[in-house]
């Protein structure tokens, strides 16, 4: 598909919807940060051994549901967000394969993150309840193995692929779209964040890159606010 000239301009309602979708990524992500952060020390709790993590999950069932539902909605909202960004690009003359690929990566990131998050609303609470309900060391060992296995696999799908690698590539593509639109500052920040997220996905080979897990997300949240302001100015 070749690049096309600008289609119909965005309506005021479409632009406001884009602003709200941008802010929704920030607002929804703050739910797990606040709720799970206070209840179980999330996201550091994701790295805890099973014998510490499972009792925490069992002791905070309401916080787990509220926090991870917020996180799940953040992932689901990536789908309309990516589509809205594609519409923005098309309306301002940057449609075509680049915008289509950018939107596809946003949707893929949302799906991958959803697949990883769902375990915390279903399987993990069940394993936690089983764990605290028994004192049999053999049964507990089996539960711990199941917890570690599922956490490693689903965490790899949701975090390694969804949050880091695919989201990083999406941000890089979005930056290229912004550059095409003449939004240079937004473009540079998007590409820089995208590279940082993608590099974090390489932590399995370079453990030192784990440090990016704590430093990149705050910058990404600030970027969302700045991006929403940029879109609002076009209302």
What characteristics describe this protein?
about 240 residues, mainly alpha, 8 helices, disordered N terminus
Give the structure's gist in a few sentences.
The chain is mostly helical and 235 residues long.
Q: If you had to describe this structure to a student in words, what would you say it looks like?
A:
By secondary structure, this protein is mostly helical. It has a domain at 12-158 and 217-232. It is 78% helix and 0% strand. Helix 1 (12-40) packs antiparallel against helix 8 (212-232) and helix 2 (50-59) packs across helix 5 (123-133). The two termini are 29 Å apart. Residues 1-6 have low confidence and may be disordered.
Radius of gyration: 20 Å
Q: Largest sheet at a glance?
A: none
C-alpha geometry: elongated
- The number of E-state strands comes to 0
List the helices and strands and how they pair.
Elements (H helix, E strand, L loop, with lengths): L11 H29 L9 H10 L1 H31 L5 H21 L5 H11 L3 H44 L3 H17 L11 H21 L3
Helix pairs in contact: 1-3, 1-8, 2-5, 3-4, 4-6, 5-6, 6-7, 7-8
């Amino acid at each position: 598909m070749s690049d096309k000239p600008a289609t119909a301009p965005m309506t005021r309602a479409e632009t406001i919807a884009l602003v709200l979708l941008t802010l929704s990524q920030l607002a929804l992500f703050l739910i797990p940060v606040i709720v799970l952060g206070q209840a179980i020390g999330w996201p550091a709790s994701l790295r805890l051994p099973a014998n510490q993590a499972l009792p925490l999950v069992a002791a905070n069932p309401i916080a787990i549901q509220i926090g991870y539902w917020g996180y799940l909605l953040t992932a689901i909202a990536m789908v309309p967000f990516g589509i809205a960004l594609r519409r923005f690009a098309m309306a301002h003359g940057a449609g075509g394969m680049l915008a289509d690929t950018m939107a596809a990566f946003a949707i893929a990131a949302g799906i991958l993150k959803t697949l990883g998050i769902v375990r915390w609303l279903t399987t993990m609470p069940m394993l936690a309840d089983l764990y605290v309900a028994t004192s049999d060391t053999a049964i507990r060992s089996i539960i711990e193995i199941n917890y570690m296995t599922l956490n490693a696999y689903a965490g790899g799908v949701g975090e390694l692929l969804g949050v880091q690698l695919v989201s990083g590539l999406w941000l890089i593509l979005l930056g290229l779209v912004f550059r095409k639109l003449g939004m240079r500052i937004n473009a540079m920040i998007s590409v820089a964040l995208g590279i940082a997220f993608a590099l974090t996905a390489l932590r399995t080979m370079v453990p030192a890159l784990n440090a990016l897990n704590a430093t990149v997300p705050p910058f990404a949240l600030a970027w969302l606010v700045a991006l929403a302001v940029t879109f609002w100015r076009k209302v």
